[in-house]
């Protein structure tokens, strides 16, 4: 099966030391993969590379068989929650419709089909009842669902989420991951998380990133392994893969 995401010897630095060092990763269609690692381990940087927002210093990135900046219209992205300011007047429906811009273009306004897709994804993420609410009035969990609806509105083949459940309580975290599990039957999902133990119940594989990358199949992560991986992950600020 051909990979939907393929990274070959990808190296990157902003201006100082390497943030990503010879990363190799192939993600196949409909895979549900978790990306974990310590703070500053390079997780957001790796996602930005797959979205075509950053270019590797060396190595090759391919998404859906093409350069990432060309395939990004088929990729839905849910940004890291605290980085997103919502102190401007915009409704839930308008936010979700923004997800159609890359598909339909900005000129001539939204078509009926755009509104239908927006409606469908709002129902799927259970925010349809909130469609006329202002974004700034939502709870953290509701906002996260709206951002997921916005990412789904482009009818993506790949969905990337950067810590979708940071600052959200456990019950809602479970609901969001149940939804991701459902979605994973029809798209590839790449989710950044700090919680290896929790996501192991959902994802098929965990990619552990701390400048270099090591993959662990979920089947290999149980009992003691979860604990040791979890502890290793917590301690990994000073830890380097060999
Ligand atoms: N725009 C930037 N300019 C310079 N350095 C940056 C920039 N963005 C990130 N970095 C640095 O690159 C390293 C990796 O950051 P990145 O955000 O990818 O890590 P992360 O694993 O997503 O971290 P976290 O779990 O804290 O979100 C960090 O040392 C960070 O300070």
From TrEMBL:
<protein>
    <submittedName>
        <fullName>ABC transporter ATP-binding protein</fullName>
    </submittedName>
</protein>
<comment type="similarity">
    <text>Belongs to the ABC transporter superfamily.</text>
</comment>
<dbReference type="InterPro" id="IPR050153">
    <property type="entry name" value="Metal_Ion_Import_ABC"/>
</dbReference>
<dbReference type="Pfam" id="PF00005">
    <property type="entry name" value="ABC_tran"/>
</dbReference>
<keyword id="KW-0813">Transport</keyword>
<keyword id="KW-0547">Nucleotide-binding</keyword>
<dbReference type="GO" id="GO:0016887">
    <property type="term" value="F:ATP hydrolysis activity"/>
</dbReference>
<dbReference type="GO" id="GO:0005524">
    <property type="term" value="F:ATP binding"/>
</dbReference>
<keyword id="KW-0067">ATP-binding</keyword>
<dbReference type="InterPro" id="IPR003439">
    <property type="entry name" value="ABC_transporter-like_ATP-bd"/>
</dbReference>
<dbReference type="InterPro" id="IPR003593">
    <property type="entry name" value="AAA+_ATPase"/>
</dbReference>
<dbReference type="InterPro" id="IPR017871">
    <property type="entry name" value="ABC_transporter-like_CS"/>
</dbReference>
<feature type="domain" description="ABC transporter">
    <location>
        <begin position="5"/>
        <end position="236"/>
    </location>
</feature>
<dbReference type="InterPro" id="IPR027417">
    <property type="entry name" value="P-loop_NTPase"/>
</dbReference>
